[in-house]
Every structure is written in structure tokens, then in C-alpha cells.
């Protein structure tokens, strides 16, 4: 009887391990699909400060297509999670990371569209604002790269995954600082152009939301990494 129970337990752990490997692969797949979108943030900023609405229209088309791919992959992942039932204790963490990554894709699409609207209607000629926007886009790219490495290491080296996810918090603090500087610069330099001020404020708020969402995803990845370390 004891041997039968042991076999059942082994089978459950085997199924859990396979499910985690599959989910980690799906996380990595979505992260890679999203990577190009996050990288395009710098391209969006460059086109926005150059008032290149044609370029922004093209970027928006690409980002929207990428968002739709990410949403489709997320639906597949959530369906897989639902089929697992209560097999994993970490299902909610995985679900939150999938939803977070999808939200990043959706917000980036929103940033691209609003940037197109802004460039189509008015110019942002401030050098200070352009430099701060470029800096914040570069910081978000570094933040996302660390998240991608953390997710990549979840299966093979969870300790490294934890350490990489931990780095995301420090980079997000940089984004917060840039966001505060940018907000002040916008109010100071665009006070005569309310259309530009309102649209750019919307864009910058969404950029800051992207940074927060990457941080939140990294917090969940840290816990997933700790969980794997504790079991092995």
C-alpha cells in the first residue's frame, strides 16, 4: 500500500515538473515576442521628437501586430493553466506574469498610437524633453532585458533567475526618477501648448506604467525562482 502511495506521489511530481517546464517555455516565448515591441520604444521616442508621423504610423502598425500575437499566446497559456487545475501551487503567479506581459504589449501599442496622434497635430521641440524621453526608453529596455534573462534562467538556473529579477527593481527606480523630471519639464516647457501637454502626459504616464508592470512581473518571477530553489 505504501509503495502505491509513493508511486502516486512520484507521478504527481513528474507531472508538476513537466507543467512547469512547459509554462516556463511559454513565458519565454511571450517574452521574446514582446522584446521587439519594447525595443521599439526608443524608435517611437525618436520619431516623436522628430515629428515623423509617417514613421510613427508604421511603428504603430508593427506594434499592434505584435500585441495581437502576444494576446493570442497569452490565451493559449491561460487555457493550458486552466487545464492543469490544482496541479501547481504557483498557477496564480504564472497567470499574473502572462497577464502582465500582455499588458505591456497593450500599453506599448497605446503609446505608439498616442505618439502618432501627437506628431500629427503638433511638434515637441524641447531638447530637455527629448533627452529625458530617450533616457526613459533606454531604461525600460534594460529593465525588460533583465526580466527576459530572469525568465530564461527559471528552468536551468533559478538562483540566477532570482538575481536577474532583483536587478529590475533598481532599474525601475531610475525610471521613477526620470518620470518625475520629465513631468516637471513637460509642465514647464509645454504650458503654452495644451494639446501637446495633455497627449504627452498621457504617453509618459503609460511609459511609467510599462516600467511598473515589468517590475511587478519580475517580483512574481523572483518568487517562482525561490520556489524552484527551495524544492531542489
Automatic annotation (TrEMBL):
SUPFAM superfamilies: PhoU-like (SSF109755). It comes from the Archaea. Pfam families: PhoU_div. InterPro entries: DUF47, PhoU-like_sf, Put_Phosphate_transp_reg. Transmembrane segments: none annotated. Belongs to the UPF0111 family. This is DUF47 family protein.
Amino acid at each position: 500500500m505504501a509503495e502505491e502511495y509513493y508511486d502516486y506521489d512520484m507521478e504527481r511530481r513528474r507531472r508538476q515538473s513537466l507543467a512547469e517546464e512547459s509554462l516556463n517555455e511559454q513565458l519565454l516565448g511571450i517574452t521574446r515576442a514582446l522584446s521587439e515591441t519594447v525595443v521599439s520604444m526608443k524608435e517611437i521616442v525618436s520619431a516623436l521628437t522628430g515629428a515623423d508621423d509617417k514613421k510613427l504610423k508604421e511603428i504603430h502598425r508593427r506594434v499592434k501586430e505584435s500585441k495581437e500575437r502576444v494576446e493570442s499566446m497569452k490565451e493559449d497559456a491561460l487555457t493550458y493553466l486552466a487545464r492543469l487545475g490544482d496541479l501547481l501551487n504557483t498557477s496564480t503567479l504564472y497567470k499574473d506574469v502572462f497577464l502582465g506581459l500582455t499588458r505591456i504589449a497593450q500599453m506599448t501599442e497605446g503609446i505608439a498610437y498616442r505618439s502618432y496622434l501627437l506628431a500629427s497635430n503638433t511638434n515637441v521641440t524641447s531638447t530637455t524633453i527629448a533627452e529625458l524621453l530617450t533616457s526613459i526608453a533606454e531604461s525600460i529596455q534594460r529593465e525588460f532585458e533583465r526580466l527576459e534573462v530572469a525568465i530564461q534562467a527559471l528552468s536551468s538556473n533559478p538562483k540566477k533567475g532570482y538575481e536577474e529579477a532583483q536587478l529590475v527593481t533598481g532599474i525601475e527606480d531610475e525610471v521613477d526618477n526620470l518620470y518625475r523630471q520629465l513631468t516637471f519639464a513637460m509642465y514647464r516647457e509645454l504650458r503654452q501648448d495644451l494639446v501637446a501637454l495633455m497627449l504627452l502626459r498621457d504617453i509618459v504616464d503609460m511609459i511609467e506604467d510599462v516600467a511598473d508592470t515589468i517590475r511587478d512581473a519580475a517580483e512574481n518571477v523572483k518568487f517562482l525562482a525561490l520556489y524552484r530553489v527551495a524544492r531542489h
